[in-house]
Design brief:
Elements lengths: L1 E6 L22 E6 L4 E6 L11 H12 L6 E3 L2 H4 L16 E3 H9 L4 H12 L2 H14 L22 H12 L2 H7 L3 E3 L5 E3 L1 H6 L11 E7 L3 E10 L2 E10 L1 E2 L2 E2 H16 E7 L4 E8 L5 E5 L4 E6 L7 E8 L2 E2 L7 E9 L2 E9 L8 H41 L1
Length: about 400
């Protein structure tokens, strides 16, 4: 028989917290916080609203170029025609006509200073036109399942047909970060191109008058348009987890760019309030399985390792569930090394871990236990066996005597 034992652990060694976790006051209208390790949204605000996304578009531009250009070390020439395609309101990397650069240079120039001159050069030189390249960007978002994202240009300038959501930009960034070169570019602060020009991340520009520590940010891409407001995507390591934070439609008040300050405030908040919590310690007794006809009454099942989950400081241990699915009784017939069940650990119905339960010791048969349980039945059986034996012996002896008399 199989059975399911449900255990709701009320662990005295872990405090029960009932206060609601309060996020800091934020000025950005659109926010999403995503745990890259656990692939889970930790917090969101208007994250599925379709909006302008400014230069966060260049995340798509860059990963599309990486996937479609065979030789990123190939040299290209910046022409006057390319530079004339750049909108006067767009940010640039300072490229000049006649510059000889590699495609890789243009990737960095697109991401770090958010250069529209670099993105247009990438598109035109690799695909023949901006329109051809944008078509590839739209093919990419369809391929990865983004339903509310569409591009018209490679830079992110406002256009009613150029849009996405914070949630889908996060999905795009999550996809792109799995590419080693993109991840390297995204997490680079400064880069020197082959022509000797040094590029710097826009973080420096936004924060130079804010007196703010940018070290918690591992990687980023910023953006701004009148419709999108100030935007920022960041990647940070927060207590062992890679966390993506997206803030869009943030204001600028005085010298305070709230895309920067909101992101930093959220990073500090997460650092103080989120960490790997040990919900079950290694060696915790999970269940005792009865053993039939053995010297041991039960077989104990223990947690094989610390069961941890990345949780906020107000987590409630009452949401932890431990289920044992397996044999409800063991005997000498069960062999050492045999799988006898599975332990399922979950928090708020989200499975944390499945552990196989393997029988780690040999179960020895106890004759004494058999006698104790079935002794009342053994006495009449033994009497019958002895009686039959006597009768058989008596019959054989009688037969033997009869045989001797016949011989004489």
């Amino acid at each position: 028989m199989k059975k399911k034992i449900l255990l709701i652990i009320l662990c005295t060694w872990i405090p029960i917290r009932i206060s609601a976790l309060e996020y800091p006051n934020l000025n950005s209208k659109v926010i999403e916080i995503y745990d890259f390790n656990d692939q889970k949204i930790l917090y969101e605000k208007n994250a599925k609203d379709v909006i302008s996304i400014a230069s966060l578009t260049k995340i798509a531009t860059t990963i599309t170029a990486i996937e479609n250009i065979e030789n990123l070390e190939e040299e290209v020439i910046i022409t006057p025609e390319i530079l004339r395609t750049v909108d006067v309101e767009a940010s640039t990397a300072g490229l000049r006509a006649g510059d000889r650069l590699t495609y890789k240079d243009l990737l960095y120039a697109s991401m770090l200073p958010s250069g529209a001159d670099a993105t247009n050069a990438l598109a035109i030189q690799s695909s023949g036109s901006i329109e051809n390249f944008v078509s590839k960007m739209n093919d990419l978002v369809k391929r990865i399942g983004l339903e509310n994202t569409h591009f018209i240009n490679v830079t992110g300038l406002d256009n009613e047909n150029h849009y996405s959501t914070a949630d889908e930009i996060r999905k795009l960034l999550e996809y792109a970060l799995k590419n080693p070169l993109f991840q390297k570019i995204y997490t680079t602060r400064e880069y020197t191109m082959t022509n000797g020009k040094t590029l710097k991340t826009t973080l420096y520009t936004y924060s130079k008058n804010m007196d703010i520590d940018l070290s918690p940010i591992q990687g980023s891409k910023s953006g701004f348009t009148n419709q999108a407001g100030y935007c920022l995507s960041t990647l940070s390591n927060i207590n062992g987890h890679q966390i993506i934070i997206l803030v869009l439609n943030a204001p600028k008040i005085g010298t305070n760019y709230y895309n920067i300050s909101d992101s930093i405030d959220l990073i500090h908040f997460l650092n103080q309030n989120y960490k790997e919590e040990t919900l079950v310690s290694e060696g915790t007794l999970i269940a005792n399985i009865p053993i039939k006809f053995s010297e041991e009454e039960t077989y104990p099942i223990y947690a094989q390792e610390n069961i941890k989950k990345y949780l906020p400081s107000d987590y409630d241990i009452n949401n932890l569930k431990i289920e044992y699915h397996g044999l409800n009784e063991l005997s000498y017939k069960n062999q050492k090394g045999e799988k006898i069940g599975t332990i399922i650990y979950s928090y708020k119905d989200e499975v944390i871990k499945n552990e196989e339960v393997i029988l780690k010791s040999e179960i020895k048969l106890s004759i004494q236990k058999i006698i104790q349980k079935y002794g009342i039945y053994l006495i009449p059986i033994l009497f019958v066996v002895i009686s039959l034996t006597i009768i058989i012996i008596h019959h054989l002896r009688k037969k033997k005597r009869t045989s001797k008399k016949r011989k004489h």
